[in-house]
Amino acid sequence: TAEEVATEQVKVEEQQRVLGIIPNFYVVYDHNAEPLTAKLKFRLAFRTSIDPVTIFGVGVLAAINQAGDTPNYGQGWGAYGQRYGAAAADGISDIMIGGAILPSLLHQDPRYFYQGEGTTKSRTLHALSSPFVCRGDNGRLQPNYSTIGGDLASAALANVYYPASDRGVRQTFDTVLINTAERMFTALAQEFIMGKLTSHGKPKN
C-alpha cells in the first residue's frame, strides 16, 4: 500500500546522515516519494528530536549562548542548565509543531524535496523558496503554513520560559526572521553541498 511504501521510504530517510554523522532525515531524494501519514510525520519528528547528535548539538548551542550571555540567565552551571533547557524546548517545540502537528492538520509535507537537476538558478530559487512553499499531501505546491506557523508558535512559546528581558513581540518576530534565514541557508546547502555528503538515499545524479 501507499502507507507501506511511505514507511519504507522513511526508514531510508532515518539513515541519512551528513558525513555519516549529522542527521539529515528531512530531505527527500526521490521525486516520486509517497506522502507521509500523520503517524509518519510524528515518527520523523520524534526520531529527529531524540537523536544523540541532536542532543549533543543542543549542548553545543547552549555553550555558545552561555559565551554570548543570551538569553539573559546569568552565568554559572545553573545558567547553563537553563540555557540547555531553553534550547531543547525551542528545538522540540519547533520540530513538533512545524514538523508534525501542523503538517498533519494541514496535510502538508514537512520535508525538503531535493531538486538536484536543472539550472543553478532554478535550483537556487527552489531552495530559497522552500520555507514559503511546500508540497501538500496531494502532491501540489502550496503556501508553507506549517513551517511558518511552527516557527511563529515556537518563538511565541519561548516567552513562557525566557527571562523578561528576552520576551516580547519584537523578540518573537526577530526569532522567526532568523529561523527563516537559517532555513533558506540550509536549503541552499542541501541542494548544492549536503546531498553529496549524505550517506544513504544519495541523489541519483
Continuous helix count: 7
Low-confidence stretches: none
**What order do the helices and strands follow?**
HEEEHHHEHEEHHE
Estimate the mean pLDDT confidence: 93
Structural class: mainly alpha
Features:
205 residues, mainly alpha, three-stranded antiparallel sheet, 7 helices, 8% strand
Structural commentary:
- This protein has 205 residues and is mainly alpha-helical.
- Helices cover 60% and strands 8% of the residues.
- It is built from 7 helices and 7 strands, in the order αβββαααβαββααβ.
- It has helices spanning 2-13, 38-50, 52-68, 77-106, 120-129, 145-157, 169-197, and strands spanning 17-18, 22-23, 27-28, 112-113, 133-135, 141-143, 198-199.
- A 3-stranded antiparallel β-sheet has the order 2-1-7. A two-stranded parallel sheet has the order 3-4.
- A hairpin with a 3-residue loop joins β1 and β2.
- It is globular, with a radius of gyration of 17 Å.
In short:
With 205 residues, the chain is mainly alpha-helical. 60% of the residues lie in helices and 8% in strands.
Element layout with pairings:
Blueprint: H1 2-13, E1 17-18, E2 22-23, E3 27-28, H2 38-50, H3 52-68, H4 77-106, E4 112-113, H5 120-129, E5 133-135, E6 141-143, H6 145-157, H7 169-197, E7 198-199
Parallel strand pairs: 3-4
Antiparallel strand pairs: 1-2, 1-7, 5-6
Helix pairs in contact: 2-4, 3-4, 4-6, 5-7, 6-7
